[in-house]
Amino acid sequence: MLGLPDVITVALFDLDGVLTDTASVHRTAWTDTFNAFLTQRAGGAIADRTDELRPFTDQDYFDFVDGRPRMDGVRSFLDSRGLQVADDAATAIAAAKNDAFLAALDRDGVVAYPGSVRYLHAARDAGLRIAVVTSSRNGAQVLDAAGLTEFVEHRVDGNTIVDEHLAGKPAPDSFLRGAQLMGVDAAAACVFEDAISGVQAGAAGRFGYVVGVDRVGGGQSDAMTSAGASIVVTDLDELLAEN
């Protein structure tokens, strides 16, 4: 009834963009933070910017930041532009992004996608065990604010990744750690992801099923399929209609 293979007993959900409508908050926080950095680097001049200092775009977010641990996102984007900064400057960029994200949470709150909430209820009722695997270091706060903590048996988040020295997405380590905490092999777990890096992680970990959640449109669905998604949906409750 959940649109998954019978062998799947555990669901490993990404958080932002899969369960909660916070991916857009992250994207805005990254955009504001990187554009402030790029403007400062350009000396405030916009018209005379060189190509590597052009404004940060949504495509930059999807290609270099989305789904990755915060510092990995900073380095990935800066590397894409050929920009070198000292470690303390990179740390300052990451801290500024987090401050912007937390300020938005305080101001606007957190909304869980209704389709995702319906799916969580159906999954729990069907006996599917649930964990959250997110690169965000604010995973606990977001779950609590969205009222979703009750569904989650285990959580692997950005703090876990740092504390346990795990490689971030697109490496499969965080999802594999989630499966380990749930006591199952990867083949018995399904990964739910809205980021290309997360879909790549699910495929690299040889999980039993990988659900891509396309909240973007355009070529995102095709990109998810190419990255290894078993199926791509625009909302989780579409899976309930698969049966």
TrEMBL record:
<keyword id="KW-0413">Isomerase</keyword>
<dbReference type="InterPro" id="IPR023198">
    <property type="entry name" value="PGP-like_dom2"/>
</dbReference>
<dbReference type="InterPro" id="IPR051600">
    <property type="entry name" value="Beta-PGM-like"/>
</dbReference>
<comment type="similarity">
    <text>Belongs to the HAD-like hydrolase superfamily. CbbY/CbbZ/Gph/YieH family.</text>
</comment>
<keyword id="KW-0479">Metal-binding</keyword>
<dbReference type="InterPro" id="IPR006439">
    <property type="entry name" value="HAD-SF_hydro_IA"/>
</dbReference>
<keyword id="KW-0597">Phosphoprotein</keyword>
<dbReference type="InterPro" id="IPR010976">
    <property type="entry name" value="B-phosphoglucomutase_hydrolase"/>
</dbReference>
<dbReference type="InterPro" id="IPR023214">
    <property type="entry name" value="HAD_sf"/>
</dbReference>
<keyword id="KW-0119">Carbohydrate metabolism</keyword>
<dbReference type="Pfam" id="PF00702">
    <property type="entry name" value="Hydrolase"/>
</dbReference>
<dbReference type="GO" id="GO:0016787">
    <property type="term" value="F:hydrolase activity"/>
</dbReference>
<dbReference type="InterPro" id="IPR036412">
    <property type="entry name" value="HAD-like_sf"/>
</dbReference>
<protein>
    <recommendedName>
        <fullName>Beta-phosphoglucomutase</fullName>
        <ecNumber>5.4.2.6</ecNumber>
    </recommendedName>
</protein>
<keyword id="KW-0378">Hydrolase</keyword>
<keyword id="KW-0460">Magnesium</keyword>
